[in-house]
Design goal:
Two copies of one chain form a homodimer. Chain A is 35% helix and 38% strand. By secondary structure, chain A is α+β, with helices and mostly antiparallel strands. The longest helix of chain A has 16 residues, at 52-67. The radius of gyration of chain A is 16 Å and the shape is elongated.
């Protein structure tokens, strides 16, 4: 049983309206030092049933097929035993 | 200028309908080995204007005040130079 964490973020060239709104709100609360705030998704899961060395390829496929939208999003993941 | 990443997830006791839906969809696509899938948010930002040693306390406050909902969500963050 391995644990995996996937981080999915909008590509840098895509405007992040949600992140911009949160950044403005933080500025209004007095946190002036915040910049380039971006909001993405994190997907945590447990993986079983495949040899460890295949999990990475499987997870990459899962991201491309369902979890992320590769047209507008980047993703990165880490797997730990 | 420091970079920070905040991971915000629903508390374990809160049902994650979005995560459950994604897990079911992955099962239907043939990824039977996936379990306990949970979906959360990741917030990435740059921080400036405070001494490095104060950034952690400031970020904790930002999470409690705006970024996370501490009643139903857990958060963790890391800061790198």
């Amino acid at each position: 049983m391995a644990k995996a964490r996937v981080i999915i973020t909008l590509k840098k060239t895509i405007m992040d309206a949600q992140g911009q709104t949160a950044e403005n709100a933080l500025h209004n609360l007095g946190y002036r030092g915040v910049s380039n705030l971006r909001i993405g998704k994190v997907v945590e899961m447990e993986l079983d049933g495949a040899p460890k060395e295949q999990l990475s390829a499987q997870l990459d496929k899962m991201c491309r097929e369902l979890l992320a939208n590769p047209i507008i999003e980047d993703f990165q993941f880490e797997i730990e035993d």
